[in-house]
């Protein structure tokens, strides 16, 4: 029997270099996108809490401002009624009784305003002391201050809320980037793998941009 030399050919090893760099790029993108996603989610949660705290603070300040305005309104109505009594007595030539009301019942603001109003030549000034610049009620000044403070607090809370929205938007972009990078190595076709990696990288850019807006970097 003739010995036949059988040539054993070694099986061709697949070229894994191409797969290795694709998997490496995918792993790097997964790491970057994962870290950025966690960063965006953390800052978004902080911004949401700060915005809620700011809105609550603004609401409380608004309530305080309304309380001051209520006090002012009550003071104004009382002063208006007292001045009406005073003026009626003056017109009846009962100056003594009118002075008693002025000295004992007028508020400090009304007393100051009335003295200034009486010093104005008749017919040249406002109809009542309550319409003069000298009539200053502290509660009204407090109301204006607190009202402005409430507006500022609300605006600041809205700004923080907008920053939180940017972090939420960043998380969406980064989540999709994670998805593309995660499935890139699963495909066997090189063009699809590269397309997925490019898509993952491109989605990182708006995600980073949204984070930058949330941090007010630009």
What does this 3D model show about the protein?
This protein has 218 residues and is mainly alpha-helical. It has one domain (23-214). Helices cover 78% and strands 0% of the residues. The protein is built from five helices and no strands. The protein has helices spanning 17-91, 95-105, 108-118, 138-184, 190-214. Helix 1 packs antiparallel against helix 2, helix 1 (17-91) runs antiparallel to helix 4 and helix 4 (138-184) packs antiparallel against helix 5. The longest helix is centred in the first third of the chain and has 75 residues, at 17-91. The radius of gyration is 39 Å and the shape is rod-shaped. It starts with 16 loop residues before the first helix and ends with a helix.
Quick summary:
Helices cover 78% and strands 0% of the residues. The protein is an all-alpha fold and 218 residues long. Helix 1 packs parallel to helix 5.
Number of strands: 0
Order of helices and strands: HHHHH
Sketch the major β-sheet: none
What is the molecular shape?
rod-shaped
> For the CA atoms, what is the radius of gyration?
39 Å
Strand content: under 5%
Low-confidence stretches: 1-14
In helices, the fraction of residues equals: over 70%
Tally of helical segments:
5
N-to-C CA distance: 87 Å
Helix/strand/pairing class, anyone? mainly alpha
In round numbers, the mean pLDDT is: 88
């Amino acid at each position: 029997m003739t010995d036949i030399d059988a040539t054993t050919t070694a099986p061709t090893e697949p070229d894994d270099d191409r797969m290795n760099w694709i998997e490496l790029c995918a792993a790097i993108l997964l790491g970057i996108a994962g870290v950025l996603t966690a960063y965006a989610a953390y800052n978004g949660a902080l911004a949401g809490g700060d915005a809620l705290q700011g809105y609550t603070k603004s609401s409380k300040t608004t309530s305080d401002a309304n309380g001051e305005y209520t006090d002012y309104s009550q003071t104004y109505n009382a002063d208006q009624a007292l001045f009406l009594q005073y003026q009626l007595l003056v017109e009846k030539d009962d100056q003594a009784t009118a002075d008693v009301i002025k000295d004992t019942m007028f508020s400090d603001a009304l007393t100051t305003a009335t003295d200034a109003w009486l010093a104005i030549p008749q017919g040249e000034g406002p109809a009542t002391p309550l319409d003069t610049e000298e009539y200053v009620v502290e509660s009204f000044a407090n109301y204006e201050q607190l009202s402005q403070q409430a507006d500022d607090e609300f605006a600041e809370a809205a700004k923080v809320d907008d920053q939180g929205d940017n972090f939420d938007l960043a998380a969406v972009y980064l989540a999709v980037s994670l998805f593309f990078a995660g499935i890139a190595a699963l495909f066997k076709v090189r063009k699809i793998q590269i397309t997925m990696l490019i898509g993952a990288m491109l989605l990182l850019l708006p995600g980073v941009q949204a984070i930058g807006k949330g941090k007010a970097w630009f």
